[in-house]
Design brief:
120 residues, mainly alpha, two-stranded antiparallel ribbon, 3 helices
């Protein structure tokens, strides 16, 4: 699909204010698709690195953090039991928000490049 006038079907997102069901969106050019993929890959690798740090650093320093108290529990226990889960949720939220903005930006550029083939 290197032709920017082609149209790709895409499922809209109701949760983020999109259209429910299938909507038609313009295809991205090859150069835009490559740049989009590089940014997506960079975001994914960055968030995977954050996930890896959470899984390695928090347990590694848990005993050192036990001297601190939070909510009546040692900080090492609290970070391992609750803090890591909250950080995982934060990673998911960051991914969803950034990807939504990135997709909207690139699809808006594709719609501007190919007039008459925007979302219907």
């Amino acid at each position: 699909m290197d032709n920017p006038t082609l149209v790709e079907p895409r499922l809209g997102s109701c949760a983020l204010g999109g259209v429910e069901g299938w909507v038609r969106m313009p295809a991205m050019s090859a150069a835009a698709r490559i740049k989009f993929w590089k940014l997506t890959l960079r975001l994914t690798l960055g968030l995977l690195a954050a996930w890896l740090l959470i899984n390695l650093v928090v347990p590694w320093f848990a005993r050192d953090l036990d001297g601190l108290r939070g909510f009546g529990f040692p900080a090492g226990y609290w970070l391992a039991a609750e803090g890591a889960l909250l950080l995982y949720l934060l990673i998911i939220v960051v991914y969803v928000v950034v990807m939504d903005r990135l997709e909207r930006s690139y699809l808006a550029d594709a719609a501007a490049d190919a007039p008459g083939t925007g979302p219907t």
